[in-house]
Every structure is written in structure tokens, then in C-alpha cells.
Automatic annotation (TrEMBL):
Species for this entry: Sorangium cellulosum (Polyangium cellulosum)
Keyword Signal: yes
Name of the protein this chain belongs to: Secreted protein
Keywords: Signal
Residues making up the signal peptide according to the UniProt record: 1-32
Segments traversing the membrane: none
Amino acid sequence: MTRFPLTWPSPRCSLVGLLSMLVAACASSTPATPRAKSATGERDTAIVHEPCDKDAASAEKVDVNGDGVPDIIHVKQDGREVCRVVDLNLDGAIDAFIYYDARGAERRRESDFDRDGRADEIAHYERGAVVLKERETNFDDKLDTWDFYEGSRLVRRERDSDGDQIVDQWWQFNNPNDEKCAIVATDQNADGKPDPTSVVDLCAES
């Protein structure tokens, strides 16, 4: 995988109905599908950094705290900003790369939340609104969680819980008022499909 530079110097119903919804959601094209699965059903889990030429001569560097190290770098092409490099906590390490479309709206953001020099999340935007977040949650430097948004609300999630590059969990967030409520189906027999006996409602009354 491609690492972040560490420092600035260059070099949701019935269970049957729910399962149908989950399968249909997985086949849906909205939001955009993550990088295509292979013929074997494997998901591309590589974390790929999109180039942002922070060392370009035309890049505008901003030193927010006056320590001589740039905290924000605006990278421009043909007079418009195409990407931005940001050190949010002013510690000299890059926290995020932000990318913009031709209209100036954010289209992609790579974030390093644990400050290890590697991206933990890649967020994709359409018309400035988030539609998909690809996440690495278990510190193995591979994507394992795909969160899908509609109207900026998390509506479903796909997970590779065992690191074999095949989705084995499907989450449907069925309560707009509580983001912790979800119905989760799991593939327990490795056939690539959610199993009816595996469905759990995280907010069901006990």
C-alpha cells in the first residue's frame, strides 16, 4: 500500500424481507459500488493513495502557527485547487488529503486518524455530499468496512470481518433517529450470501 508521508518535507420488516433488501442493496448502484469484486467474489481491499503533488512549485503553503512548517498546502492546476494537504493538529504529520472536482466541491478525502502515517479511511463524495466511506478498522492496512450513505445518512454497511477479502456481514441501518440501530446479517457458511438464521436486530426489544 502507499503510505502517507509522515512529515511535511518531501522525498432494515420480516427477516425474509430484510434479507431480500440486503441482497438488493448489495446489487444496487447507489451509492457508487466500491472497487469491483473479482470473478471469485473477492473485494479489492488495498488502500491506494491518490497522488497530490504537495511539492509542486505552484503549491501554496500556509504556516498556521508560525513554526516554519506548512500546516496547509493548496495544490493547484490551471488556476484551480485540485487537492489540499492538511495537518489538523499542527504536529508536522499529515492528517488528511482532500481532493476537489472541477466545480470546487470535495470529491474525496483520505484521513489518517491514528497518526501512523497510513490512511484509515477514504471518503467519496458526490456534489459535495458523502456517499461512501472505505475504512480500515483492525490495523492490518487493508480495507475491511464499506459504509454507504444517502442524504449524508449512513444507511448500510458491508464488512469483511475475517480479512479474507470477501464481504461476510451486511448491516442495514433502519432507524434514522438512532445511528446505533441496525439489522445485521452474516454469512456463516461461506457461500457469499447472508444467512437467514444469522440476522440480529441490534435494537430489538429483549
